[in-house]
Amino acid sequence: MKEDNLSAFEDFFIVGFSDLPKLQFPLFAAFSLIYLMTLLGNLLIITTIYSNSHLHTPMYFFLVNLSFIDISCTTIIFPPMLARIFQNGTHMSLTECLVQAYCFMVTLATEFILLAVMAYDRYVAICHPLRYMTIMTKAVCMRLAAVIWVVGFVTPLSHTVLVSKLTFCDSHTVNHFFCEVPSLMKLSCSSTYTIETITYIFGAVELMMSFLLVIISYINIVSSIVKIKSKRGRTKAFSTCASHLTVVILFYGSICSTYVLPPSTYSMENNKVLSLVYIAITPMFNPVIYSLKNAEFKMALMKTKNSV
Q: For 90, phi and psi rounded to 5 degrees?
């Protein structure tokens, strides 16, 4: 058998956290709690918004999409990761790795665009409050959601197809807790120049376009906030925007350091830590940041709880 055909028959070994045997129980407990809190928090958002008709507005419509993305992202990663903590690593076929990598990239690409659209929604609400419902109509929101998801599913296809054609004739050990494109490219003995170029271009373009929309939206939002005469009104508006901006910086910053920089500079050890930020921390805190501090949502939540 030729060496460059080995990848067609051998599995990949996912190291996970097997290099930290003394921390197996603490890690399992911590990640289980994070996953449970993420599921409950985001499901609570979806249920509450669905159950209260006065929350059927553009802002909460996009929030439901964000919650669904967060649930999907953590579910793609956490159950397999938790299962392998006590197994000292597990094996995955190339097909399984590619499926997980593709699904993960779909959630990333979708959230990029969704966060930008949510920033635009807040811009319209704060800067053009009288025209908000005529601009952000139900039809417009549905079209925006369709674009978000279509782009999210289409963008990672080229990466996945190209990775599937690589040969892996050296090590098959993935020093990560899940499969992703950069970690697979590190194991390839064939040229990854094309994939690196496409990854860099697609990542940079998608990141910069969505982040530019966020920046433009917030420049206009801040400009409108400083014109509000009421101190209470300015504080409330700024608090809402600051929360969203915090999540944007956290999410975009960690993604940028991993996927926009050339994959040749990729470090698996550093990426484990960075990955936990946008896979675990951000989805867990999104319900708190976007909704649970919102007075309108709290009232709706209490109404839903009382009706149960």
A: -140, 165
Q: Considering the entire predicted model, what is its pTM? A: 0.85
Average confidence (pLDDT) over 209-237: 83
DSSP assignment of 129-182 equals GGGHHHHS-HHHHHHHHHHHHHHHHHTTHHHHHHHHT----S--EE-SSS--HH
Handedness of CA 77, 82, 85, 90 (dihedral sign): negative
Number of domains the chain contains: 1
* Placement of tokens 């997980």 in the chain: 100
Phi, psi of 173 (to 5 degrees): -95, 120
pLDDT digits (tens, 9 = 90+) for 118-143: 999 989 988 888 899 899 999 999 99
What is the extent of the structural domain holding 262? 3-307
- How far, in Å, CA of 97 to CA of 64, rounded? 28
d(CA 33, CA 39): 10
Nearest Cα residue to 184 out of 208, 201, 165, 158? 165
Q: What percent of the chain has pLDDT over 70?
A: 83
Contact present, 27 and 85 (Cβ < 8 Å): yes
Among 173, 185, 178, residue whose Cα is nearest residue 276:
178
- Of 216 and 185, the one with more pLDDT: 216
Question: At which residue do the structure tokens 């417009």 appear?
Answer: 140
Strand partners, 148: none
CATH of the domain at 123: 1.20.1070.10
Distance of alpha carbon 163 from alpha carbon 147, whole angstroms? 25
